[in-house]
Design a protein that fits this description.
By secondary structure, this protein is α/β, with parallel strands linked by helices. It is built from 16 helices and 26 strands. The strands form five sheets. Strands 11-10-9-12-8-13-14-15-16-17-18 form an eleven-stranded mixed sheet, sandwiched between helices. A hairpin with a 7-residue loop joins strand 19 and strand 20. The N and C termini lie far apart (51 Å).
Length: 493
């Protein structure tokens, strides 16, 4: 990103950074040099900047301290001494220190902009993109950070993960503040909460969508996964909460948090209570009753789960002082969200949708939405990712076979054998399946099998434009493959 986000500010010194991590028993060895930025990756370090050496599961950042110094680092933050002739700040835990250091060097950007943190297994991207559209309709400037990238106003910025590492995230927030962003919508993953990437951000609003099985390879069990999400709703993290109460974990958060909380739901009694009026392939209408008044919201995305997402985004916007008219206009004018129940418009008279659903609950929800839209059968194409939560694979197979026909294929196998992954998914199947390991051929088969009035749901990869196979990312886009398959059968009965 061009420009020094600190160029107009007084220099931060290594002594200032030591003060920022006072709770981690800092000890400074060497002079308190000026620090222009902090980095967790030695390859990103430039002259006058600081490298924070973090021990990891596979590599130890301390081993790269020499490389950081060779690139111009004038200071290091370490847990143990390294043989490098630059000032070193010793702390008890460099991972815990990183967000505090990054916030200090970038002058605590979240104190200058309203940040909404959205967490939950599914719906984070949709809620943040809905908030973006609402913020624009209120004639304010949005910032967005999440799975499909980042936005600074109208400028797109790539990010490495759903919630960037703390050093990258604080730098990005500073750029947003300097660019005049008014409201930031930030996806907050459970990994980020456990690893402290969102620490040192003061969230104006913390929002919860739902919780279902995912990431158990990282968290170990559902209780730990839930506990990670719950961290966002502590007073140290956020000022107030918006919670989807119809989800059991949402009800639990609403009951336990001490934050001022707005509950949201389709069931009676929520602070923002929705009543579904209509739903078809073009979208849904929902009557939203709030303490600010009642309004009919038109959501140009199919699926009742997107009604839930719209109501959560509505509650967040109201908490930020945006009026109902701007909320309604923002949702009605929502542009398509890449890979989120995205209708592939080309082709014969049956529905083809690409969606990011990659958990058992999300697959069931997508199939349920497809069933309400289809006049005929629901055909789904599903695969599971490699090197990720193997426990959910049979459950994904069971969810996929709630469709009339499930086509089981490869997703992102990464370092695993795709045939073995497919076998694990098929082991949970409870209905008709067709197995095709080649994802392109699987999509083509599903589209060719569709008849008038059917719905074909291609699930799992959504917006992604590559397939990770054996350490290589190969060009692949479900939407492109589906559109080509539709063209090949155009005019089919």
């Amino acid at each position: 990103m061009p420009g020094d986000p600190r160029s107009d500010a007084a220099a931060v010194t290594l002594a200032d950074l030591a003060a920022a991590v006072a709770m981690l028993s800092p000890r400074l060895v060497g002079s308190p040099v000026a620090v222009g930025d902090v980095h967790h990756d030695s390859r990103d370090v430039g002259p006058g900047e600081c490298f924070v050496a973090i021990p990891g599961a596979r590599v130890d950042g301390h081993d790269f301290a020499g490389g950081a110094a060779a690139r111009g680092a004038t200071a290091l933050v370490v847990e143990s001494a390294v043989d490098v002739d630059v000032p070193q700040l010793f702390v008890e835990d460099t991972r815990r220190a990183l967000p505090l250091l990054a916030a200090a060097v970038h002058r605590h950007p979240s104190s200058e902009v309203a940040v909404v943190g959205v967490t939950g297994t599914n719906g984070k991207t949709t809620v943040t993109r809905m908030l973006e559209s609402i913020v624009r309709s209120a004639e304010l400037t949005p910032g967005v950070v999440g799975t499909v990238g980042a936005l600074i106003g109208d400028r797109t910025v790539s990010v490495a993960r759903t919630t960037p590492e703390a050093s990258d995230l604080q730098r990005l927030l500073r750029h947003m503040v300097d660019a005049g962003v008014d409201i930031v919508a930030l996806e907050v993953s459970s990994h980020a909460l456990v690893m402290g990437r969102a620490d040192a951000i003061r969230f104006e609003v913390a929002a919860f969508t739902n919780l279902s099985q995912d990431h158990l390879d990282f968290h170990g069990d559902m209780a730990s996964y839930a506990a990670a999400k719950e961290r966002l709703f502590e007073p140290a993290m956020a000022r107030r909460a918006v919670v989807w109460r119809d989800d059991p974990e949402g009800a639990r958060i609403a009951a336990q948090t001490v934050l001022p909380t707005t509950t949201v739901g389709l069931e009676p009694g929520a602070d923002v209570e929705g009543t579904l009026l209509s739903s078809d392939s073009q979208g849904s209408s929902v009557l939203a009753a709030t303490r600010h008044g009642t309004v009919t919201l038109r959501v140009p995305m199919a699926g009742e789960f997107n009604v839930a997402n719209a109501l959560v985004a509505t509650a967040c916007a109201l908490e930020l002082g945006i009026d109902l008219h701007a909320v309604s206009a923002g949702l009605e004018g929502l542009p398509p969200i890449p890979g989120r129940f995205e209708v592939v418009a080309t082709g014969p008279p049956f529905l083809v949708v690409v969606d990011y659903a990659h958990t058992p609950a999300a697959i069931r929800s997508a199939i349920g939405a497809g069933r309400r839209l289809a006049r005929g059968r629901v055909i789904t194409v599903v695969g599971a990712g490699g090197d990720r939560d193997p426990e959910k694979r049979p459950a994904m197979g069971a969810a996929a076979t709630t469709a009339d026909l499930a086509v089981i294929t490869s997703d992102n196998p990464r370092s695993e054998d795709p045939v073995g992954i497919i076998a694990a998914v098929v082991s949970g199947a409870r209905g008709p399946t067709h197995v095709e390991p080649d994802r392109a051929r699987a999509i083509e088969w599903a589209v060719a099998a569709a008849r008038h009035g059917d719905a074909v749901l291609i699930l799992g990869k959504g917006h992604e434009q590559g397939q990770e196979v054996g350490g290589e990312v190969l060009p692949f886009d479900d939407r492109v493959v589906a559109a080509a398959a539709l063209r090949s059968v155009k005019g089919a009965p």
